[in-house]
Design brief:
By secondary structure, the chain is mostly beta strands. It contains 3 helices and 20 strands. The protein has helices at 18-28, 120-123, 137-153, and strands at residues 40-44, 49-58, 61-65, 71-75, 79-84, 88-89, 100-103, 106-107, 156-166, 172-184, 189-201, 204-219, 224-235, 240-256, 261-275, 280-296, 301-311, 319-330, 337-348, 358-370. The strands form 3 sheets. The protein has a 12-stranded antiparallel β-barrel with strand order 9-10-11-12-13-14-15-16-17-18-19-20. Strands 4-3-2-1-5 form a 5-stranded antiparallel β-sheet. It starts with 17 loop residues before the first helix and ends with a strand.
Length: 371
Amino acid sequence: MRCFHSLFSTNQVIRLLVIPLLCLLSSSGIGFTADGSGSEILYLKNGQNLSGESVGFEEGTILFRLPDGEVRPIVMGLVDRLEFHAGKLEADSSNQGTELLVNNAGVVPPAVPPLITVDPLDAVPPTPDSVSDRVTPIDQIEEYVDEYWEYVEIWTKRMELGGTFLGGNTDRDYLTTSLLLEKSDNDNKFEFEIGGRWGQSNGVRDANRWYGNATLDIARKTNWIVFMTNKNTYDEFENLDWRGTFSSGLGYRFINEKNKRLIVRVGPGGTREIYNSPRLRRSTLDVFAEMEFHWPLSDHAKLEHKQTWTPSVNNVQVLRVTSDTGLFFKLDNKDRWNLKFGLLQTYNSVPNAGRKKSDYTGSVSLVYTRK
């Protein structure tokens, strides 16, 4: 008896070259001529062995016929190796005397297509694990977080933090912070920014202003855009509880490059203001006009400027102007860290009683940008 150990691995993965051939032989009517109790011996991994004849292969099992005629399905993952007698394979009358020879190199039928190596472990269907395959609420949350984090990763994110802290003869605390998110391509751009300034001197608060703005630009392969914007402001020292402006209209991108930008937006709008001390509520129809300008000054410096005008239509005395200018100095080669010198000017032609028309705020802050 010859054993083809080159076709099988006893301790690792079982690889059978003979089984597909046996299936082909079974389907074509070719059988083994037995010399003894059985023409084949099937060795199992548990130490048992079966004498008989393999008659087929289906759904990850070997169909093995025992000497008493019983056909037993054997899972291929349990098979260690298959041995059979060297001899002559005789065909029945339906195959007109076709002969296949068995030798130490394996089974090589002259008219059979090349054999395909079969890994029996791959052929065995996996057993479902009711515990490991169960989807828990935590798994769903992790999936949602991964999905939305991938979406957030494509946004440009800029964080700004600055402040002044003095103690001793002068007691001064001042903090400025902001977060800007921007997603843009050649056609559309969405920008969201939120931030504020807070300060106190000798324990008395003298600065408390916060804002949140959102702008959407929509274009169709041209420099013309349709925009929508919403701007919101709270300023304790303007006696302003809330100022909200909404506008939509047309704009034009004179320059829209990665490091250079000149965009103008103009359209109708409306503003709602709520003041305290004395309490005043005012709603106006406005003309909204905005200019956004970014320009590199050198390899290590750039200028950003945004100016917004909202003159009232139904009350010509009301005019509001916001001008925000920033001068950035690069601190690293990747342009992620910058030192910013900023100046914010706000103007309201009709302020609340006892308040001045203009406010000026200067700041120095550290800016981190992630793209």
